[in-house]
Design goal:
By secondary structure, the chain is α/β, with parallel strands linked by helices. It folds into 2 domains: 5-160 and 365-388, Aldehyde Dehydrogenase, Chain A, domain 1 (3-Layer(aba) Sandwich), CATH 3.40.605.10; 165-347, 3-Layer(aba) Sandwich (Aldehyde Dehydrogenase, Chain A, domain 2), CATH 3.40.309.10. 35% of the residues lie in helices and 21% in strands. The chain has helices spanning 5-26, 62-75, 90-102, 116-125, 138-149, 175-187, 207-218, 239-254, 288-291, 307-315, 330-339; strands at residues 33-34, 41-49, 52-56, 79-83, 109-111, 131-135, 155-159, 165-168, 199-203, 258-261, 265-266, 274-275, 278-281, 298-304, 322-326, 344-347, 366-367, 380-388. Strands 10-13-14-9-8-15-16 form a 7-stranded mixed β-sheet, sandwiched between helices. Helix 2 (62-75) links the parallel strand 3 (52-56) and strand 4. Helix 6 (175-187) packs across helix 7 (207-218). The longest helix is centred in the N-terminal third of the chain and has 22 residues, at 5-26. The termini are far apart. The chain binds NADP nicotinamide-adenine-dinucleotide phosphate (NAP) and magnesium ion (MG). Magnesium ion binds next to loops.
């Protein structure tokens, strides 16, 4: 899908393996419950597998998103039918081969490559699929709600889009670290990251200084051949996505934002779809580049005057996947973290995480959580077994 091979090797593959191992190791340490009823009864609350889980995943982290579903779904005793994105079926097929080699019984993990409208919709509407675990756009996530309502009321876990605010307060301690995080927070994986920090909210007093430092970082992130191990930014997944990203850059210009860096397709002679790191300044939160998910290397800079205004702008979005705040004031860090409507809030960092911490959204970024012990809950149903003693 165009990501640098160094990221596939250093990020996607090891994290996918770690995820599968984590759930394999976790599952015999999860206990059921006994309800605190009176002495005349014993009431156990047991978790049971749902049955068949459909997993429908996107192309931006093809193997990792598949693993986030397959790991906990299999560990809790379900079988899984996995539909990868049309652009990126190969890692899913390889995962199934490795699963067969590792002894997963036939039929327990199946991979069905195919288009969303056919294979994806068939899973969404199937009467024998008990849950669809989905990662992808909010638009398609809403379709799964409809498929469910029109079929068997299957459960859903939806990890959808985002428009994450990356807030730099006036009392940001380490401006270089914030600049580095802001640049990589939106340019990593060519910006094709659901939690990308695509809105940079910066205190007006720091804006010029911060932008200058972000540009310095961005200038070191040059798109190149994804198969070259030195490359740190690869190609956009396909022509459709390229045109979408370039269309948003045009929309930014047309709506009056200042193009501060980049803005164009590069390396056209290679036959690949490369977009240079792009930064807009003087963006208002009403503009399309601030409201809609671009899923490309495009940063929208929005200045603010005080903390209250920053929170208001940050939360003025239909999404709520992630947010970040840079501040040296401990009270402010706590206050702002609580005020931000997002499933993950980073303080003085961006996009840090590991398998122990849940990931997922508020609002139209979806519901249900991937990663951590909490991911197990949605792949089970809770049964009450009430036994009368006397
Ligand atoms: P997408 O178009 O929503 O596709 C996601 C998956 O749904 C693909 O497997 C796709 O299949 C399938 N699909 C498409 N149309 C469908 C339909 N009508 N019925 C059933 N299934 C359908 O998203 P994408 O373009 O692959 O990925 C980009 C989006 O994913 C972004 O919005 C991004 O924010 C989101 N994302 C979210 C997270 C998260 O954790 N929240 C992580 C990564 C990506 P085909 O494409 O093969 O047809
Ligand atoms: Mg698609």
């Amino acid at each position: 899908m165009g990501k640098p091979i160094r990221d596939s090797r250093a990020v996607d593959v090891p994290l996918a393996a770690e995820c599968i191992a984590y759930y394999g190791e976790a599952i015999d340490k999860v206990y059921d419950e006994v309800a605190p009823t009176g002495p005349s009864d014993v009431v156990t609350l047991v978790r049971e597998p749902l049955g068949v889980v459909g997993a429908v995943v996107p192309w931006n982290f093809p193997l990792l998103m598949a693993s986030w579903k397959v790991g906990p779904a299999l560990a809790t005793g379900n079988s899984v039918v996995l539909k990868p994105a049309e652009q990126s079926p190969l890692t899913a097929l390889r995962l199934a081969e490795l699963a067969a080699e590792a002894g997963v019984p036939d039929g327990v993990l199946q991979v069905v490559p195919g288009f969303g409208e056919t294979a994806g919709q068939a899973l969404g509407r199937h009467m024998d699929v008990d849950l669809v675990a989905f990662t992808g756009s909010t638009e398609v996530g809403k379709l799964f709600l409809r498929y469910s309502g029109e079929s068997n009321m299957k459960r859903l876990a939806l990890e959808c889009g985002g428009k994450s605010p990356h807030i730099v307060m006036q009392d940001c301690g380490d401006l270089d670290a914030a600049a580095e995080a802001a640049a990589w927070g939106v340019f990593y994986n060519q910006g094709e990251v659901c939690n990308a920090g695509s809105r940079l909210l910066v205190h007006e007093s720091l804006k010029d200084e911060l932008l200058e430092r972000i540009v310095r970082v961005a200038e070191t992130i040059r798109p190149g051949d994804p198969l070259d191990p030195e490359t740190r930014m690869g190609a956009i997944v396909d022509r459709t996505q390229l045109e979408r990203v370039l269309g948003y850059i045009d929309a930014g210009r047309d709506q009056g934002a200042d193009l501060h860096l980049g803005g164009g397709q590069v390396l056209e002679e290679s036959g690949g779809y490369f977009v240079e790191p792009t930064i807009f300044d003087a963006v208002s939160n009403e503009m399309r580049i601030a409201r809609e998910e671009i899923f490309g290397p495009v940063l929208a800079t929005i200045p603010f005057g005080d903390e209250e205004e920053a929170i208001e702008i940050a939360n003025d979005t239909v999404y709520g996947l992630a947010a970040a705040v840079w501040t040296n004031d401990l009270s402010r860090a706590h206050r702002v973290s609580r005020a931000l409507r997002a499933g993950v809030v980073w303080v003085n960092c961006f996009d840090r995480g590991d398998i122990t911490a849940p990931f997922g959204g508020f609002k139209q970024s979806g519901f249900g959580r991937d990663k951590s012990i909490h991911a197990l809950e949605k792949y089970t149903d809770l049964k009450t077994i009430w036994i009368a003693i006397d």
